[in-house]
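Our consortium's second objective concerns turning raw sequence data into structural hypotheses that experimental partners can test. To show how far this objective has progressed, the report includes one record in full. It was chosen at random from the queue rather than selected for favorable results. The single chain below, 291 residues long, was entered without modification.
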Amino acid sequence: MAQHDYDIANGTGAAVRTDINNVLDAVVSQNSGSSAPSTTYSYQQWADTSAGLLKIRNGANNAWVTVGTLDAANLGLATLASPTLTGNPKSVTPATGDNDTSIATTAFVKTLVDSAVAAAVGNLTDAQMPAGSVLQVKNFHYDGTDDSTYGVSTHAFGGLTGAITPSSSANKILVTMYVNCEEVPAFGNAMVGVTAYRGSGSIGSLSGTNLAPTSSSWPYGPIADNVRNFCVFDGGGTGDSDGVVSFSHLDSPSSTSSVAYTVAFRNMSGTKARLGGRGAQSTMTLMEIKG
């Protein structure tokens, strides 16, 4: 270890020779020492033996800048060819759209991926959507009241209806309904059977396809209705009673024209059936599902 002020003092030949040798020792040892040289110069190197680091004086000659680690290959710095980096190495983030050999930082990649995903999803056509995807949703509600005096084997259309236009004849329509109905003592406390029709109409004008399976378990004979879809009440009484029916059906209309769906209902045991009533709201949702 050797350091010097790099000033050769006047003296005898032997003294000057010794001073010159000390300067050379400082040069070849990179001014090594456990503390910084007392006299410093801009861009002067110092082998800091205490910290094990090679340092260089900055251009303003007011601070030391660490260059690397002493006794380490390549001063512990990354090699130019095939370096192995550790920790959290950072780089300048290239501009969006850059297409050269610049290093792609995580910020650059994330921006590129986010943009590509947004563009892909935003421009994704119905034909590109996977099977089972929801392509559109339509919601409908009804606050009114409908009565039917037809017999137990005849359906009547209620006021809850809606339409949807499939984008492909191969797609399906998921029909879900939440229907309010009412038991009225003056009507003979009739239970109300509810189903869904593909079609439209009004009270007394029924057309379309019943979406519920045919059942022969009802005591009045075979009825094109799912007999499980009915409003259950308290079995009678002097006051009106409310009931609700919720059901769903995955329909295949095989059409690209507007398709109407309507709730239908029937009297199951009394003289008259009532759909709606008592200020309750019935709702229907139509969802186009990719086939």
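The partners drew two points from this record. The helical segments are 13-28, 106-122. Residues 106-122 form the longest helix (17 residues). Both points have been shared with the crystallography group to help prioritize constructs.
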